[in-house]
Amino acid sequence: MRASTSFVPLSRQVSGLMLLLFLASVAFAQITPSADAYTNTADPTTNYGAAPLLDVESASQTASIPFNLSSIPATYSGADVTQATLKLYVNAVTTAGSFNVDYVSGTWSERTITANLAPALGTTIVASVRLTGASKNQYILINLTSAVQAWLNGTEPNDGIALVANSPLAASFDSKENTTTSHPAELDIVFAGGGTITGVTTAAGSGLTGGGTSGTLNLALTNT
User: Fold this and answer.
1) Among 27, 26, 22, which residue's Cα sits nearest to residue 219?
2) pLDDT averaged over the chain?
3) Would the CA dihedral through 90, 125, 98, 171 be positive or negative?
4) Other Cβ atoms closer than 10 A to 169
5) By CB count within 10 A, which of 1, 46, 105, 179 is most buried?
6) How far apart are CA 184 and CA 113, in angstroms?
7) Is 99 or 197 the better-scoring residue by pLDDT?
8) HSE of 13, CA atoms in CB hemisphere, 13 A
């Protein structure tokens, strides 16, 4: 009786090796807000830091969101960031329109910020992000690469971002206090640079040689 021989097609060998090399060359970070709140000029002394929604409305309501970047290694700079994406969950769109994402220029606290106490806004990072009725109950993605690079380089203070409505717009996003749909804002960062792979072993039939259990691993395709 002839024993069966299993093999991995070359295309799959190459795909697997490329995936491992890709994972070794990039790193990811998913950061949720350290705080979030909105302010309302129609009620300038009220704090909305505990609200389940971040309301954004032209001429009255502005949302602020900071992200604590202390988990990023101190050796990283803006040059190590290849992509940074702000992820927001749209809870409602009462009036379609657009908003800008601006720097916040000054420190603030989630439980004390009001329209009267809100810090000044800085320059615009991203202008005219569109929201329509179809945006409701959907995520929107906004490129914040330049802002994260500036924060890590120290060229901009990291006091967070502000969602500032253009006219007309009336919408809301989930805050981190929302326990109904529970989709707080998120900052997804992709870092470039070398890395290590741990716990990769190879065996007969895998089409790969090398590997190991820790450290920097060397992998290669077999000649067969």
Assistant:
1) 22
2) 87
3) positive
4) 23
5) 105
6) 19
7) 99
8) 18
| Residues 173, 89: Cα–Cα separation, whole Å | 6
| 145-184 tens-digit pLDDT | 999 999 999 999 999 999 999 999 999 999 999 999 999 9
> What's the pLDDT at 218?
64
Record the tokens describing residue 155, joined without a space.
């060229």
What gap in Å lies between CA 179 and CA 96, rounded to an integer?
25
∠ CA 92-95-98, nearest 5°, is 90
Contact yes or no for 143/87 (Cβ under 8 A): no
**Residue 182 — left, alpha, or beta (φ > 0 → left; ψ -120 to 50 → alpha)?**
left
Helix (H, G, I), strand (E, B) or coil at 117: coil
Bond prior to 119 in cis (omega within 30° of 0):
no
Q: Which amino acid is at 49?
A: G
